[in-house]
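// run 5 | inverse folding | seed 20
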């Protein structure tokens, strides 16, 4: 019944929703052609490739990422953007170093018992050596927080924790500084490459917390060697309670990491639409998204990243198509940038900001589209749940008032043609996407973001859950904003 009702609603609303939202004004003729070329259908075609099986979640440095980059470059070529990357290509190579656990040199020892890395245990890649008493925890480790000595300085073997998002324990548990958290798991997984973040070292001398997995067999063997056979049984009250078993046995672990550099770096994808005014065209509006996502997890599941940030990347492609097909070109230039390495710490955009192809003093603004295709389900700052149905036509403007009020007011004015309801309660994420690399250099920015949802950074962030009208309308809003910012007589002031 419910499904039928929903279907009926979609059918009734579909024609109205494919255009701008209710009550919005038509756009002037000189913008109409490009504006009308932006459709939910086109965004869906692009996103279905980027967030489909072919690209395997677009993890930076993988074949899937390169396929996504090739696809975007091919569209830029199709639209006639100028290849302004390395050696007149659409790629700017970003140096990229990655690391993973050296299984031969890494190990865990408790008393006389040895556990083999890659078979019995697997660690996250971080050079480290740890030592501490072993504690077995079953159930919810957070339930032990009142007695923080249970956790401090210990090697935790955790089974069946609730909230099992990272390593099976919550941030609360990790804060109480056990030296290691090994989550009991069916399979320990293979060693996995991660970005070394340009070789940056850890900031403090405080010992790094080791995280990883231990197979159930190995955990049982470990418990037996400590003489605590029932240590891995769940607490009688169930998984929301915790049971800690402290065998007073010390263990030590050693993790050694192997590093390598990607031979030719990993590309940002870049293309330019030259402005029509000979004098003003050296100035430019930058439009950006991040092309990368998390890729395949240790458990083999693909993180498709349809919203994060397939949505912004499909918008970037639709935007390039609109601005190149409009007929009338703006006076200033428009630079399109799809960044690599955002998920690994804004690697691609930071590289661009430090090695800009065109001087950043000529950058009028950067308009970032990252996660623009869903209806918000909760707010990150207060964790208050909202319902997606209430947020079908809402989105966030983040950081738009921080550097240039004129840019903010321009977005507001252009929205008269779209009809979004803007929210401003996500300023906490101001540092969390590529625009921030430009903001740090004083470039005015606006970060378009439709909000968090339960599929954020999970394999379930898939194309079928996307609101394509929202991607399309955000693209239209950025189209109008980019065009006017690039075309106005006087450059936007800071
Ligand atoms: Zn993102």
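// decoded
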């Amino acid at each position: 019944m419910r499904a039928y009702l929903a279907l009926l609603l979609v059918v009734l609303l579909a024609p109205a929703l494919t255009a701008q939202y209710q009550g919005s004004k038509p756009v002037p003729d000189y913008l109409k052609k490009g504006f009308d070329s932006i459709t939910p259908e086109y965004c869906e075609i692009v996103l279905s490739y980027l967030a489909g099986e072919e690209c395997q979640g677009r993890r930076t440095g993988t074949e899937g990422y390169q396929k996504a980059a090739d696809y975007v470059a091919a569209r830029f070529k199709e639209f006639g953007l100028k290849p302004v990357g390395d050696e007149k290509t659409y790629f700017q190579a970003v140096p990229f170093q990655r690391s993973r656990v050296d299984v031969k040199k890494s190990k865990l020892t408790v008393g006389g018992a040895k556990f083999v890395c890659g078979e019995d245990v697997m660690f996250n890649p971080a050079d480290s050596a740890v030592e501490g008493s072993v504690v077995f925890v079953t159930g919810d480790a957070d339930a032990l927080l009142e007695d923080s000595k249970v956790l401090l300085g210990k090697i935790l073997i955790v089974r069946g924790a609730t909230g099992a998002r990272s390593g099976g324990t919550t941030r609360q548990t990790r804060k109480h500084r056990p030296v290691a958290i090994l989550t009991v798991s069916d399979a320990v997984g293979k060693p996995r490459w991660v970005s070394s973040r340009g070789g940056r070292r850890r900031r403090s001398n405080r010992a790094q917390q080791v995280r990883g997995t231990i197979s159930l067999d190995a955990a049982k063997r470990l418990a037996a060697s400590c003489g605590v056979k029932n240590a891995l049984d769940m607490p009688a009250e169930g998984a929301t309670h915790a049971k800690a078993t402290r065998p007073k046995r010390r263990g030590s672990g050693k993790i050694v990491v192997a590093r390598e550099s990607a031979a030719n770096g990993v590309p940002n994808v870049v293309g330019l639409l030259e402005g029509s005014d000979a004098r003003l065209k050296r100035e430019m509006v930058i439009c950006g998204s991040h092309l990368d996502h998390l890729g395949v997890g240790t458990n083999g599941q693909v993180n498709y990243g349809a919203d994060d940030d397939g949505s912004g990347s499909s918008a970037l492609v639709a935007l390039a198509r609109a601005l190149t097909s409009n007929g009338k070109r703006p006076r200033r230039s428009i630079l399109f940038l799809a960044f690599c390495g955002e998920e690994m710490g804004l690697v691609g955009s930071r590289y661009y900001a430090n090695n800009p192809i065109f001087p950043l003093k000529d950058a009028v603004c950067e308009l970032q589209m990252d996660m623009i295709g869903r209806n918000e389900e909760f707010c990150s700052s207060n964790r208050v749940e909202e319902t997606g149905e209430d947020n079908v036509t809402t989105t966030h403007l983040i950081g738009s008032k921080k550097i240039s009020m004129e840019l903010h007011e321009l977005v507001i004015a252009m929205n008269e043609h779209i009809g979004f309801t803007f929210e401003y309660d996500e300023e906490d994420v101001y540092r969390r996407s590529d625009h921030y690399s430009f903001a740090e250099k004083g470039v005015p920015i606006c970060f378009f973001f439709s909000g968090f949802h339960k599929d954020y950074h999970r394999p379930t962030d898939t194309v079928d859950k996307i609101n394509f009208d929202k991607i399309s309308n955000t693209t239209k809003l950025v189209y109008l904003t980019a065009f006017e910012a690039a075309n106005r007589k006087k450059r936007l002031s800071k």
